[in-house]
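[audit] Reproducing an earlier prediction to check determinism. Same input, same settings, fresh worker. If the tokens differ from the archived copy the diff job will pick it up downstream; this log only records the rerun itself.
[audit] input (199 residues):
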Amino acid sequence: MAKFTRQRLGRGVALALVMTFICQAFGTPQGFDTIARADQSKLQMDLALDFIQHHVTSSDVIFMDHLTDLQFGHYLCHERPISFDQSVAGFETFRCDGYNVISNRKIGLFDSGNFLSSWEDMLRAYDLRTGQAVWVIQAGLGGDLADQLRTRFPEFSELHSVSFGHHIQIFKVTVGQSGIVSISSAPFSLLRLQRAGTA
């Protein structure tokens, strides 16, 4: 830039203004790719982990998309190295603190268009039994899968989820006969979480 402006302040300022205009005109819309400072707080992750500790049992399964796996798994395993099993095509599993986690490696972020097919693929791959509790966790930009499912599919209208900030969402589903999803419509107990969040 110094060569182009040849040490002239006027040209440098003009070039900077043109570059700023181009970035504003053609860049990513403000807020689209950013997470609010409050949602970046580790408190949200700590609250989500506390929820898991108090609601998810060692016999339950945790199901995540790949992006959630990358970030949430790090905290679920207390920042220790994770040993992944990728023996099932398209999926990976790992265990941390007694939790059994299944992640779909082919899907970066679950949404209402890909979740049910991913669910069915997971059921076929892991042969989960009827009545098996599965906790779906989504973390990161667009962490609103439960909201999308409630809006798009009538059978999910009673689905209850819990959110930690705007970008971490957890809900429970149960494997039904023939793989049909049975949803949990009972609210989760958040009393302990509310106390922790206000402390």
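[audit] rerun output stored. Observation attached for the diff report: The longest strand covers residues 168-175.
[audit] end
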